[in-house]
Amino acid sequence: xxxxxxxxxxxxxxxxxxxxxxxxxxxxxxxxxxxxxxxxxxxxxxxxxxxxxxxxxxxxxxxxxxxxxxxxxxxxxxxxxxxxxxxxxxxxxxxxxxxxxxxxxxxxxxxxxxxxxxxxxxxxxxxxxxxxxxxxxxxxxxxxxxxxxxxxxxxxxxxxxxxxxxxxxxxxxxxxxxxxxxxxxxxxxxxxxxxxxxxxxxxxxxxxxxxxxxxxxxxxxxxxxxxxxxxxxxxxxxxxxxxxxxxxxxxxxxxxxxxxxxxxxxxxxxxxxxxxxxxxxxxxxxxxxxxxxxxxxxxxxxxxxxxxxxxxxxxxxxxxxxxxxxxxxxxxxxxxxxxxxxxxxxxx
Length: 348
Fold this sequence. Notes:
Pfam families: Allantoicase (PF03561). It contains three helices and 19 strands. The relative contact order is 0.16.
């Protein structure tokens, strides 16, 4: 049974969990021959210039695939979006703005719950049984906003990824996924970002800052492009690059975020985070872990339930990228020790 499109339904009051502004990312597409998949979650409304053509043909502000001829490749096209904020999905908007002679005949949307940082190819290869249908195959129109209420049975589930099926091919300008954010309670608590520049954190060492300043990783807010993060040169020698941050004060680290947003082809191969105590001892906070491009990686270092006797207090952290590559932001959430608070108060 197909969902029925409606005009301006109530669910649009919910935030767009897929938005690039909330760190959403289009991690995979079966094809993007004419227009890149990343356009699907751009925050602005799609535009159109009738005179703009590129080497591949007409330029569209959306995701457009090649003609899928059944005697050649058959099937249909899909794109997978990792939600910037996981949540319960209340409604979906699929906009085919400006696609008038090259829109798909049908569209469908499915949801997935996967908190692991799996490569995009592994997500795409998951069996159909892993996905929950949010919008069954439904007839589509050209140059039209399609509004779909999510079935009640699925609306209470928490999803991390969305798969948009374009049947069989064509172009879609935007995808909006409105819903209730559902945070992981393990990452909630009375903590501060010990590394943030606004709280007194500062970069004290960096192996390479060829393209942009390492100070960007502890700056306010989220990045809007790759240039607002830290990017090093391509390493042609042994070893790896790193950046060291003196924390606002001594603290116990609870969880960290290593964000590679907008670093699609320049992200590190692996990342790790080391804590440094007041005596110079090094403590492993995040073991060397495979990094994904264009992703907010969150790592639980210690559970707040451990209390004050939990993690070893540190005064600095070193983020290592292997062998090179850029990161957008580094967040080090934790609790100040008595000594750390005294340091901050004395500075104030």
